[in-house]
Design a protein that fits this description.
Blueprint lengths: L3 H7 L5 H20 L7 H25 L6 H27 L8
Length: 108
Amino acid sequence: MWPRWLTDALRGKVSLSRAFWLYGLGLSVLYSVPGFFIDIENRPLVAIYLIGGLALGVLQTIILWRSAANARSRALGRLVHAAIVAGLILALLMVYVLYKNRGLLPVS
């Protein structure tokens, strides 16, 4: 049903370098290009774009986490896992800070 290049990546069957460069950086660059052409005044379109970016980020995180086992060294795999955990903690911290300080968010 799903393309093999995606299912293999989600199952961690690709190398860590491929996961980082192709599925991480490559997909992020491809996803960013349409963002330059989105009118920020069109809130529904911006919301759809941001939700799509969130979904892409979740997929990339899963791919990187599972592909870390394929790293050339065990230390590199652990570093990737630690970076992912640190990123998730920081993201949750930012959500908490923005929730507690709603004045930091632009409201119209």
